[in-house]
Amino acid sequence: MSTTKNCLICGVGGQGTVLASKLIAQAAIDMGLSAKTAETIGMAQRGGSVVSHVRIGENLSAPMIGPGEADIIIGFEPGEAVRCIDYLKKGGTVIVNTNATIPVTASLGMHYEGAEMIEYLEKLESRGLINLIKVDGEAICHELGSQKVLNVVLLGKAASSGVLGIDTARIAEVIKARLPEKFHEINLRALKV
């Protein structure tokens, strides 16, 4: 990988966005690349927005990704993916969990419909502005027996798509090195779904 890869990971508190960014960064470092991460977290413990910036490459200057610079957005929640879409470069890839998590604003009486967010992303794809990979994270996690592996399911999709520049085998090694052994089996299965 001779160029910089910018990956924005967005979701709501408790979905594992920060862990996902750390797994990607460690995999890049293990490949001999530089990696920088930064998070913006708003009321995360109460379901607020969490955005993790991951920059991979050589000669990285700053950890934050600017508007129009992200090669890939990994959206753990459809509304958060739409909210971060301005960070994506034209022709970039959005990998999105199709299942909505009701954000704090909706719990305060505001309207929120996750399907509308997916439709918006589909319109952007139909106009050739983005590449879209939709993942039914809820169904996959149900099949695996835990909603807590959504982050690794989406990382697996990003790695297998090729756009991340890090393969699933490298991420599997990081999972084995960084996570407690009791979580290895389910996360390795999630990575390969």
Walk me through the structure.
- The structure is a single chain.
- The chain has 193 residues and is of the alpha/beta class.
- The chain has one domain (5-192): Pyruvate-ferredoxin Oxidoreductase, domain 3.
- The protein has 8 helices and 6 strands, in the order βαβββαβααβαααα.
- The chain has helices at residues 17-30, 78-83, 104-107, 114-126, 137-144, 150-161, 168-178, 184-192; strands spanning 5-12, 34-41, 49-57, 70-75, 88-97, 131-135.
- A 6-stranded mixed sheet has the order 2-3-1-4-5-6, sandwiched between helices.
- Helix 2 (78-83) links the parallel strand 4 and strand 5 (88-97).
- The longest helix has 14 residues, at 17-30.
- The model has no long low-confidence stretch (mean pLDDT 90).
Fold blueprint:
Elements: E1 5-12, H1 17-30, E2 34-41, E3 49-57, E4 70-75, H2 78-83, E5 88-97, H3 104-107, H4 114-126, E6 131-135, H5 137-144, H6 150-161, H7 168-178, H8 184-192
Helix pairs in contact: 1-7, 6-8, 7-8
